[in-house]
Amino acid sequence: MNTSLRGTKIFRRAGVTALAATLLAGVTMPTASAAGRDRPEVQQAIQEFVDAGFAGMQLRLRDERGEWTGAAGVRELGKTAKPQTDGHFRVGSTSKNFTTTLVLQLVAEGKVGLDSPVAGYLPRLGLDRRITTRMLLQHTSGLFNHTGQYNPDGTVTPGIPWAGQEWVDKRFHTYQPEELVRLSVSKPPVFEPGAGWSYSNTNTVVARLLIEGVTRHPIAEELEKRILRPLKMHDTLSPGAWAGMPKPYAHAYYHYENAGEWKTIDVTHQNPTWISSAGDMISTTKDLQTYFSALQSGKLLPASLMAEMRKTHPQSDSLYGRYGLGQFSQDLGPGCVGTVLNHNGNVNGYVALMYSTPDGGKTLTASITTGDSAAGPAQAFPAALNKLLKTVFCGKKASN
Question: Which candidate in 18, 122, 144, 203 could, as Cys together with 346 as Cys, close a disulfide (CB 3.0–4.6 Å)?
Fold first, then answer.
């Protein structure tokens, strides 16, 4: 895969590409502010996403100045109300970070070996015995991506439908995780295990089956027990085949072409089993902030595994930095805070942002909903994101 295009592909391919104050000792956070009055530069950066053609955006920022929330655009097409800053949304590939954390917790407990063959835990799937747990979390397994594989020559080997009329027609269909993995295993590997890097949703689906096989519990139960309940994340869930969305929420739309005609449909409700644990979760900006701050500040994993998580692969350059185990590390350049950790995500209708400094003290979480724009958002996204990150993490306005 052309590394210069990886970030764009991850963004465009629905994830093929995208506790809080009380746990920060000695820090007291003011009440979140309204509509950009004290952070006009951040509010302007949010507005640029809407100006580029997205329907709406909500954002939460926490730093040494306290906690701030802002929104722009609309909650629903044809109406004027802004998205709620406590609204629920689909987080897409941000789910991969949660799944990775669950696996690493099992590694910390000695139940899973980071460099052990996954086939030893899941013999029924027909996996190459050279594929290790680390390779799944790092995207170095070589497994074919069940949502379709981008090839070095620019062609795509299709997988299950994730776009266009095919996906629209099947957006309430239920897939089983084993079904997705078996599709992947039936295809030739992208490379020999460990011999390259290729972002593949299937890696995280196998990681889900690993969690369920070792614990003998559904992933939703392990997520609740190990992360959501301890951190009091009441607005986050792994929905399984449930196509609904908890209130409040902003509507999300899918704009696509079929038979020469452009159509826009509301996709707030959709069955996310096609992406499974690689992108199915629902959350809020507050819960994502709580989670990512706790993770980066060492409250969920031991220091040795946090170090493993942050070791990046040299071939994984993308819009979001380089990939480690379940997250990206990005250097924003001179005048900024240094490295920021992130795992953004997107599924049809939604983009999620989740950023933190390595100590968990400064975070940015956001949801962006797509609308009925025929062109522009995907192309404008990298520049708008860069400006937002420079504004937040470099303490200054940034030009495009």
Answer: 18
Residues written for the chain: 400
pLDDT tens profile 312-333: 999 999 999 999 999 999 999 9
Tell me: cis bond preceding 193? Omega within 30 of 0 counts: no
Q: Which residues contact 398 (CB under 8 A, 6 or more apart)?
A: 386, 387, 390, 391
Q: Give the rounded distance of the alpha carbon of 290 from its chain centre.
A: 15
Domain enclosing residue 172, as ranges: 3-393
Q: Please check whether residue 367 is in contact with residue 87, taking contact to mean a CB–CB distance below 8 angstroms.
A: yes
Q: Read off the pLDDT of each residue in 140-147 and give the average, rounded to a whole number.
A: 98
Where on the phi/psi map is residue 259: left (φ > 0), alpha (ψ -120 to 50), or beta?
left
pLDDT at residue number 379 = 87
Sorting pLDDT into bands at 50, 70 and 90, what band is 17? very low
Active-site residue identified among 33, 93, 304, 318 = 93
Residue 393 near residue 342 (C-beta atoms within 8 A): no
pTM for the structure as a whole: 0.90
Residues 147 and 201: beta-carbon distance below 8 Å: yes
Quote the CA–CA distance of 385 and 199 in Å, as a whole number: 21
Residue type, 286: K
For the chain, what is the domain count? 1
Contacts 24+ apart (CB under 8 A), 116-125: 118/206, 118/210, 121/210, 121/213, 121/214, 122/206, 122/209, 122/210, 122/213, 125/178, 125/181, 125/182, 125/185, 125/206, 125/209
Query: Which H or E element spans position 392?
Result: helix 377-393
Give the position of tokens 């724009």: 373
C-alpha dist (Å) from residue 85 to 262, 279, 393: 31, 22, 20
Return the CATH number at 196. Answer: 3.40.710.10
Going by C-alpha positions, the residue among 375, 255, 249, 393 that lies closest to residue 331 is 393
Question: Residues 118-132: what's their mean pLDDT?
Answer: 97
Give a yes or no: residue 399 inside a domain.
no
Residue 166 domain-assigned (yes or no) = yes
d(CA 309, CA 312): 8
Active site residue 367: no
